[in-house]
Amino acid sequence: MSDITGCGPLNDKVDCAANVYMAGCHLLPHDDVIGTRCISYVIYLSDPDDEWTAADGGALELYPSESPGVPALVPTAFALPTYNSLALFPVAPGISFHSVQLQSFLTAQWASAIDTATRAADSADQLGHGKVPAYTAGYSTDDSNHWTPQGPLFLQRYLRYTGAAPAASEVLKLQSSLTDAKDVNTTKAGATPPTPSSPGRLLAHVQTALVQSPAFVKWLSLATGVSPTGSRSEVRRLRPGLDYTLAHQAATSSPPIILDAVLCFCDDVGQEGDDEAPWSASGFECYMRAVADGVGDVAAAAFNGEDSTDEDDDAAPVQIGAQNNTLSLVVRDTSTMKFVKFVSCRERGSRWDVNVEYTLPNP
C-alpha cells in the first residue's frame, strides 16, 4: 500500500469499522484526518447477486481542492460499491476530501414507476425530441386532468398539479412502500403504488407522504443544521418548448429566510449521436443575488457560464442542473432571486418536480 499510494513508510497500526448505508443514507465531504492516519480504505460487501450501477447512487466521491482546506463543489472521481472490491487513498489534511453519494432518493421501484408515468405522458402529449409543442399540451381547458397553467407569462409559465391530496390510508401505504427497497408489490402495508398512468397522482403522493412528513423535516434539520417551522409545496411540470420561470425578487411579505427543497425527475439519459448532454443548457434552476442595478448582467452571466462581475464571490450565480431522482437543497434570503431556465424542445421530455419552500426561524 505504501508503494501504491506513495505515502511513505507505514507502521502496523490498522483501524477498522463497519458501516451500513441504507437507501437515503449519505456521508458529507470530509478529509478523514484522524491522528496519524495515512491511508483510508474501504472494502465493499454489497450483495454479490445484485449488480450495483451508477443509477443506484451510493458511490464513493473524491473531490479536488479549490484552495487549501476547501474542496470543489463537484467531485471528479467515483467508485461504485461493487462487491468484494477495495478503494483506498492517501489521507492529507485539507486535501483528501471525499463523501458517500446519497443513494437514489426514492427506491428503485418508485423511481421506475414515476419514470414510466412521466415518459408516457410526454409521449402522449407529443413533447420533446425537437417537436414543436401545442400551447395546451398536457392540460385540458376544463381542468379535468388536474394540471393547471401558472402565470403571469411575464414571470413564469408551467403546469401545477391541483388534484386532491391522497387520503390518510393511502399516505400510510405509500410511506411503507418507500421504505421497502426490494418489493413494493408486497402483501404488507406497502401495497402497490398508484397507477403509473397518472404522474400527477404519483408525485402528489410523494409530496404528501415524503416532503411534508415529520420524518423528512427531521432529516432536513439533521442534514442542514436548520429547523423548518412551516412549508408550502407544489408539484410542477415544465414542458419542453414551452415553460420557464423568470428571476424576480420575493414579495415583501415573504419569510426572511427560506430553505428550498426540490425533488426532480426527468429523462436525463443521453443518446448516441446527441450534440450535447441532456439538460446541459436548459431546464436548470439558477440562484443569484439581487442588486440595485445590473440584474440583467448577472442573469446573462448565469446563462453564459461567465464569472460574476461583482467583487463579492457570494454574488456569483449558482446553477443546479436537472437530474433524475435527485434532491437539491438551498438556503436563501429575500435578497436572492431564482429561476428555471426555459426548457428547450430538444430535451427528451418535461422537467417534473416537487418544489418545496420551508420557512426558517429569523436569525
TrEMBL record:
Residues 99-359 form the Oxoglutarate/iron-dependent oxygenase C-terminal degradation domain. Pfam families: Ofd1_CTDD. InterPro entries: Oxoglutarate/Fe-dep_Oase_C, TPA1/Ofd1_C, uS12_prolyl_hydroxylase. One of its GO terms (molecular function) is 2-oxoglutarate-dependent dioxygenase activity. PANTHER family: HISTONE ACETYLTRANSFERASE COMPLEX (PTHR12117), PROLYL 3-HYDROXYLASE OGFOD1 (PTHR12117:SF0). This is Oxoglutarate/iron-dependent oxygenase C-terminal degradation domain-containing protein. It comes from Aphanomyces astaci (Crayfish plague agent). The lineage of its organism: Eukaryota, Sar, Stramenopiles, Oomycota, Saprolegniomycetes.
